[in-house]
Every structure is written in structure tokens, then in C-alpha cells.
Hints:
By secondary structure, this protein is of the alpha+beta class. The protein folds into 2 domains: 1-67 and 162-199, Alpha-Beta Plaits; 69-157, Alpha-Beta Plaits, CATH 3.30.70. It has 4 helices and 13 strands. The protein has helices spanning 56-61, 81-89, 141-148, 166-169; strands spanning 3-8, 12-13, 23-24, 35-37, 45-51, 69-76, 92-93, 96-97, 102-106, 127-134, 153-161, 164-165, 176-179. Strands 1, 4, 5, 6, 9, 10, 11, 12 and 13 form a 9-stranded mixed β-sheet that branches. Strands 2-3 form a two-stranded parallel ribbon. The protein has a two-stranded antiparallel sheet with strand order 7-8. β11 and β12 form a beta hairpin. The longest helix is centred in the N-terminal third of the chain and has 9 residues, at 81-89. The chain is elongated. Its EC number is 5.4.99.-. Belongs to the pseudouridine synthase RsuA family.
Amino acid sequence: MKIVILNKPYDVLSQFREDDAHLTVSHFVHDPDLRIAGRLDMDSEGLMFLTDHGGLNQFITNPANKKYKTYLAQVDGDVTEEALEQLRKGVELADGMTLPAKAQKIDEPEWLWERNPPVRFRANIPTSWVEIQICEGRNRQVRRMTAAVGFPTLRLIRTKIGSIDLVQLGLQPGEQTEIEPLLYPDFKDVPEDKPYRSRSYVKKPGGTGGKPIQRKDKDGKPKKSGTKRIWQMDENEKPRRKTNGTTRPNTKSRGRRPR
């Protein structure tokens, strides 16, 4: 299992496909075996998790596994305790109620790097910082949550996924490092890396172990796949119309009435 941590800069797309207007992750990471587990929006910064393990993406992002992701949000206005309490209880968004978050007001971090371009401020309105921890991964969730309680996010930085801490790793924007999974308790229950199986494969205990179902006829021979169409059938294979014996041939004229 290979895990690489990237500090994604602002205005970089979380994808490997090249883009004409913006830099992408491919500008910083060149390993073709790595895949992104837990994306960041283009206007968000911070910890991005990449791995070559097939099942680790879902393991990290599935809310049932309680892998909390920590964000620092600079919000528009002096955030109130009432707003923080709303975040802790859950916020009603357009796509439903969020799970309760862990939220607290903090001072501006001393280690914080300058953003390019800088955040635009309104001179008559102060800003404040909030640390938010969530275990969901909805689209632009933190931004929508802070806006819903009256404090829109101006700048968003992801600092942790589980026990992986971007600040402890000391990565500046654009820098990356490979970590050893055995040093982190988050990966002790990671599922085995298995190839993808389609839904047509048997998944229940006692099945074929992931092989496609092979159906057989009454003589034990494999059935031919597919269903015959009517024009492919022999005359004795075609279905017969069932009637009550009163059906008469249609003798009505389909053209113009003769004169």
C-alpha cells in the first residue's frame, strides 16, 4: 500500500486530467498508480490523500468509518457561539440534514502560509477562524454549512484526515511526501485490496466466490446466453396464440371503399 500526502494549493483542480484554464494534481504528482481519495474543491487548500490501494478511497470517505476530516475556515464576520452550536447539532442543507460536526472558534494559525491571490476583505466587517471536523464528504459541505448559519467561508484549508496531520508533516503548498501506513492507527482495519466486481457476480456466502453465474439446462449442460427473438425460432418453437375458439379471420378491407 502506497500513500502520498499532497498540500494542494489554491486554484488547483483535484484531477489528473489536464485542464486548459487551471493547474491540476498532475502538475505535482506524476505516479500513474496513485488515485485521489477525498477531493478538494479548486478554491480550497490543504491535505490531499492519494493511494494505489483500491479499497482505501471508500474506507477513508465512508461516514460509517468515522474518519474525521479537519478544516480551518476563515469566515466573514465574528462567528458566534450560537452559530457554532448549530454546526455541532447539524445543519439543514438543500440535500438534507448534515451529521453533527465538531466546531470551535480559534485564533488565526501562526504557521499559515500566504494565499495567492489573497482573500478579499470588507473593511467594515471582521473575519474569524473556525476549526470544523466532519466525517461526511458532500459537495462543498463546509462552505455550505458556515453559510447556512450566517458566516460565509472566505478561505478553507483541510489540515487533517484521521490522524494524518498536514501541519506535523510540515508541507508547504505544492509539496508532497509518502507516509508509512503502519505508523498510523487509521489503517489497521483497511479492507483487502480486491479487484472490482460487477453486480452480476455472486456476493452471498456459498456463492461462486466472485465468478460469474453459470446457468445450466435440465441435462446439466451450460445454457446458451441470450434469449431467442421470434425470427430466430423454428416454427415449432414459436408461441401459439391462445383463443376461446371464436376468433375469426379478419376480412375487412384496408383500402378505399369500392364504388
